[in-house]
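Researcher: Quick test of sequence recovery. Tokens follow.
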């Protein structure tokens, strides 16, 4: 989590002098934003590790949900992040494990998030040349739908595969 906070702090500096904070929140739900909040959902690449058998696996279909809101009168803003989990397919009693992202992939997500914040909270125009930001990481094999928290919530297929 410190990695997320650090990357976000660097990128959020200079947002009209407002103070933005990022917090982890596993209770936010896709499609259910509170009044005055915006949503951004993004697909990325991450590693998981089973806390029972210690096996680790990569996934290129890891959903990350952001809810964000600016309180302009207080000169501050908040971003809530939920990183969807996956569980080991070998252990029958496996628990949902948190993904671990590289700093590069976090940076790609946060850069895109900042673009959304600038548009939705500061009324900026979308950038003309939309640089194609792709996550870094290759893997073979199908997505384990039964072991993916985002699939179980029906949101995996809704987010762009990039
Ligand atoms: Zn396991
Ligand atoms: Zn999925």
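Model:
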């Amino acid at each position: 989590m410190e990695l997320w906070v650090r990357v976000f702090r660097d990128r959020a500096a200079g947002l009209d002098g407002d103070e933005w904070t990022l917090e982890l929140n596993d209770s936010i739900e896709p499609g259910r934003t509170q009044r005055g909040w915006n949503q951004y959902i993004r697909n990325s690449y991450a590693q998981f590790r089973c806390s029972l058998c210690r096996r680790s696996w990569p996934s290129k279909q890891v959903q990350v949900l952001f809810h964000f809101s600016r309180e302009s009168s207080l000169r501050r803003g908040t971003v809530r992040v939920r990183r969807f989990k996956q569980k080991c397919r070998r252990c029958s009693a496996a628990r949902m494990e948190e993904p671990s992202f590289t700093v590069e992939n976090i940076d790609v997500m946060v850069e895109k998030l900042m673009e959304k914040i600038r548009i939705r909270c500061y009324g900026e125009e979308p950038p003309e040349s939309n640089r194609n930001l792709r996550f870094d990481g290759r893997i073979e094999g199908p997505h384990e739908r039964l072991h993916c928290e985002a699939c179980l919530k029906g949101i995996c297929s809704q987010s762009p595969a990039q």
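DSSP finds three helices and four strands in the chain.
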